[in-house]
Amino acid sequence: MGEAVQIVDLATASGRPSLSISRVKRIINSRGTQELPAIIVSIGGVARSGKSFLLNLMVNYLQYVEAVS
Predict the structure, then answer these.
(1) H or E element that contains 21
(2) pTM for the whole thing?
(3) Which has more confidence, 13 or 68?
(4) Contact in structure between 38 and 27 (CB atoms under 8 Å)
(5) Does residue 28 sit in helix, strand or coil?
């Protein structure tokens, strides 16, 4: 089973988001991931605006599709 990996760091000295290239490379070069489809999802917004709901909805949908297949 996969796991979420944070590839964008919001707590930088400049106050601007920073992409962690080393984490992206680690994901891409992981054993067994070369043939797998990958999606990068970025969801931002103010507190209590539905970010977790949207992520949970996407995960539940993908699990449903996998179970039906």
Answers:
(1) helix 21-28
(2) 0.56
(3) 68
(4) yes
(5) helix
